[in-house]
Amino acid sequence: ELADFFNATIHLVHVSDPSVKMTKDFELYFTRMAQRFYLKKYRVKVLKASSEPEAVMEYAEKAGAGLIAVLKNHDEGVFRIFSRHFSDQIVKDEPRPVYTYNLQNA
Q1: How do the residues of the chain divide into helix, strand and coil, expressed in percent and rounded to 5?
Q2: How far apart are CA 56 and CA 96, in angstroms?
Q3: Is the dihedral of CA 19, 21, 22, 24 positive or negative?
Q4: Cα 47 to Cα 1: distance, rounded to the nearest angstrom
Q5: What does the DSSP 8-state code read for residue 95?
Q6: Taking the complete model, does pTM exceed 0.85, yes or no?
């Protein structure tokens, strides 16, 4: 509904390792997800890249995105400070607003 209010297009983006050969499977999965949630204006894009955060940020730049939404799926434990997770890197490096949703709290 928020996207409809702003007449926005939602880009469902998945980044996979260049060696993964399941592009069509990912496209079908995200298309079905968009239909299940009755998205009206959406695009599905599967990117091949070795750096997921960089690929998402580059895509957002090219698409002229006003907001990036990222799903988080990791604990907030002590070992988190020793790694640089996908969502954390985007929040730290992206100049656009970033909305994160932690699946562990869903």
Answers
A1: 45, 25, 35
A2: 12
A3: positive
A4: 27
A5: S
A6: no
Choose among 11, 97, 25: nearest CA to 55: 11
Q: Which CA distances in Å does 105 have to 24, 75, 97, 100?
A: 30, 10, 21, 12
DSSP code of 40? S
C-beta of residue 70 within 8 angstroms of C-beta of residue 98? yes
pLDDT tens string 3-30: 888 889 999 998 888 888 888 999 999 9
* Residue 87 backbone dihedrals phi, psi, to 5 degrees: -65, -40
Return d(Cα 46, Cα 67) in angstroms, integer: 18
Tokens read off for 10: 């939602």
Helix (H, G, I), strand (E, B) or coil at 77: coil
Residue type, 99: Y
